Amino acid sequence: MDHPNDISNPAADSNQSLSSRILYDEVYKILILGDTQSGKTSILSAYIPLPHKDTNIGPCSEFKSKIVTLNSGTKAKVHIWDVSGELEYPELVRVYYKNLSGAIIIIDLTKKRSLHVAQSWVEELRTQNACKHILLLANKNDICHKIPSMRQIDSKQVEEVAKICNVPFIETNAHNGEEVTVAFKGLLERIHEECLGETKELEVKDLREEKIMLRDEKGYEEIGKILEEIGGGSNEYKPKFLSVKRIVFFMGIFAVFFAYWINLP
Predict the structure, then answer these.
(1) What is the pLDDT of residues 133-171, one digit of tens each?
(2) Would the N or C end of the chain have less CB density within 10 A of its end CB?
């Protein structure tokens, strides 16, 4: 398997810097969840068609990755896990929650149960604080257009659940690769915007701390100047009560008064 950061150009300079070999700036982890036979694997294949170098099919999940260029110009490598765990056994899926960036929950428009399962997955992710960014994707609308009697969930029902869960939704199908790509791209943009917001908050916090440090240093300098004006020494403020010279001076005065007191009749 080729590493995504390897440059296979034989004419490339062997002394090329490491930074020039990095093909992406950020890494996001996405889970695809939903009821059985809802089309999770088909949606993933529509976004990243087979065969793909990073495909790793296991007994309970399928993994793929893709480098995406976001609107800001940032290149993000997206790790996508199609998890086949059942909602009745959420502990099998929770092992995938670590470092999770977002989730896409698939709704099968031809199965009424699928809508309830999707809502339960949203509640599961929220309860476990797994991720903030969730997208509901209603699948198989192409079948519903061809055979209207197959539709068991209408668009209004999906919209109502999306409002209750406070998440966006899209109705599409695995054969419409463009719409699937738009769905993934919208989720990734929202994740990226949050990352930028967190970065800005950290920058503001650092600036505030730096400002406080500068303010304190300036305060020490002002105190040092005042001490210098009254004969207290150098400009550098050192929080000492008395200098050595002053201690010696006061000890001398004390010795004189003490000797005088002893000699009193």
Answers:
(1) 999 999 999 999 999 999 999 999 999 999 999 999 999
(2) C
Provide the token pair at 136. 């509901």
**Roughly how many angstroms between the first and final C-alpha of the chain, as a whole number?**
105
User: Is the pTM higher than 0.70?
Assistant: no
- Closest Cα to residue 35, out of 153, 163, 128? 153
DSSP assignment of 37-55 equals: TSSHHHHHHHHSPSS-TT-
Closest CA to 168 of 114, 127, 108, 107: 107
Task: Count the Cβ atoms, other than its own, within 10 Å of residue 131.
Answer: 18
Single residue among 200, 235, 253 that ends a domain in this structure: 200
Structure tokens, 190: 């929202």
Beta bridge partners of 75: 69
In this structure, which amino acid lies at residue 71?
N
Domain count along the chain: 2
Size (the chain), residues:
265
42 shares a domain with 98: yes
